[in-house]
Specification:
Layout (H helix, E strand, L loop, with lengths): L9 H14 L14 H6 L2 E2 L9 H8 L3 E8 L9 E2 L3 E2 L5 H11 L3 E7 L6 H4 L3 H15 L3 E5 L8 H17 L4 E7 L7 H12 L6 E5 L7 H20 L3 H6 L1 E6 L1 E2 L5 E2 L1 H13 L4 E5 L31 H9 L29 E2 L4 E4 L2 E5 L3 E2 L11 E6 L1
Parallel strand pairs: 1-2, 2-5, 5-6, 6-7, 7-8, 8-9, 9-12
Antiparallel strand pairs: 2-3, 3-4, 10-11, 13-16, 14-15, 15-17
């Protein structure tokens, strides 16, 4: 979730909950539905069903042929606790408004995935005691809505919290085991190099737990990007990170890689047009990537004036477009048949325990090549250093050599 991925306001929640009560379809009250192909869940664009002037999902489906939607965002309650809510304010347990949206989509032959986390807000991984309780909270969401797909959007500030990420990855693994066939995507921040230090730490956590989702997706925007070429470059670099982290070959890494873009003007003033989306789509399909999605359908319409006075909006794109232009690229991605034989990922080996070096000392002087242990990891000094905590800075003097 980015700054414009606003949390649900209480007034909006009350209004939509009232509207959803009468619209609830009895036959779908249990959430049961027939699953779509994984390709559709991989193509599902994000939709905020309770905020940012939600568009009519049925109208989008009728206009574009889109079948899948990524509903955002499930968070911990704003007042704290380990129970799922929409936007921190609307309890999933008593929800009827989002259920009404889901029923409308399913009645037309579509389905939804639910995204948890996002940018900002308090995440369940931060407030639940451990992975098991975090998974139990998310299982409530899966059970209520009869989900066949779920997205873990792990970014600021959660992915800077080691314990929270351990809970989220652990929960994802539990849900994957307890819900056979569940499509699981993990979305995180993108950089020109693929993803940053915290994104790489999240991947290492997944490796250490032996967890492999359907894909790891990056968001190559809000980081100094300029058009499609910078985004495809980031995807290439991220592929290399996946290879080195999990020991996959290039094809297997692409089969577990995803793209999550932002249509139109980004939060930091970057612009991504329909032509940029087509270029990235061509890259994704030609490399047999697993996912192609974007933030968001709420923004997939033209502003008035078109440039929105040089600002970024949560309800329109700030570029010239027809309604739902960007959703059509998701439909194209879903229509591309993936390889008939998807490369089998190399099993994640059980980590071999590595002995810890001498503990780091704040008073000792270290020179290039010296090795220490800190926070259950071994570290190697890249240059002279004293009283600089290992891992405190991505660009600091210490190179992480892995868990010990």
């Amino acid at each position: 979730m980015r700054p414009l991925r606003a949390c649900l306001g209480a007034a909006a929640a009350v209004t939509l909950a009232a509207a959803g009560t009468t619209a609830l379809v009895a036959s779908n009250a249990s959430g049961a539905t027939t699953a779509l192909s994984n390709r559709w869940y991989a193509a599902a664009p994000y939709l905020m069903p309770l905020d940012n002037n939600p568009p009519d999902a049925a109208a989008i489906m009728d206009a574009t042929g889109l079948k899948a939607f990524q509903l955002a965002f499930v968070l911990a309650p704003n007042g704290g606790g380990c129970s799922p809510t929409w936007g921190g304010t609307a309890a999933v347990s008593s929800d009827t408004a989002v259920q009404s949206v889901i029923n409308t989509i399913r009645a037309r032959g579509g389905d939804v995935s639910v995204s948890i986390g996002g940018y900002g807000g308090t995440k369940l991984g931060q407030t639940c005691a451990d992975a098991a309780s975090t998974a139990a909270a998310y299982q409530q969401v899966i059970t209520k809505y009869g989900l066949h797909a779920i997205d873990f959007d792990l970014e600021e500030p959660e992915y800077e919290n080691t314990a929270a990420i351990r809970n989220e990855i652990g929960a994802a693994k539990i849900l994957q085991q307890n819900n056979p066939g569940l499509y699981v995507s993990v979305t995180t921040a993108g950089t020109a190099d693929g993803t940053g230090w915290f994104g790489k730490q999240m991947l290492l956590e997944a490796k250490s737990q032996g967890f492999t989702p359907n894909n790891f997706s990056i968001m190559p925007f809000d980081g100094g990007f300029s058009g499609a070429a910078s985004q495809t470059g980031a995807l290439t670099n991220f592929n290399a990170i996946l290879q080195s982290t999990f020991g996959w070959d290039q094809a297997t890494a692409y089969a577990h890689e995803g793209f999550s873009g932002m249509n139109g003007r980004s939060d930091t003033g970057e612009y991504f047009t329909q032509a940029d989306f087509q270029t990235v789509l061509d890259y994704a399909t030609s490399h047999n990537m697993d996912r192609f999605t974007f933030w968001s359908l709420n923004r997939d319409r033209q502003c008035t004036p078109v440039d929105n006075n040089g600002t970024t909006s949560g309800t329109c794109s700030s570029v010239a477009q027809g309604a739902w232009d960007f959703a059509k690229y998701s439909v194209k991605f879903a229509g591309v048949t993936p390889p008939t034989t998807t490369p089998t990922p190399t099993p994640t080996p059980t980590p071999t325990p590595t002995s810890c070096k001498t503990a780091w000392s704040a008073t000792a002087v270290y020179t290039a090549g010296n090795e220490v242990s800190y926070n259950s990891h071994n570290w190697k000094a890249k240059w002279w250093t004293q009283n600089e905590v290992p891992g405190a800075s991505e660009w600091g003097p210490w190179q992480d050599e892995g868990a010990c």
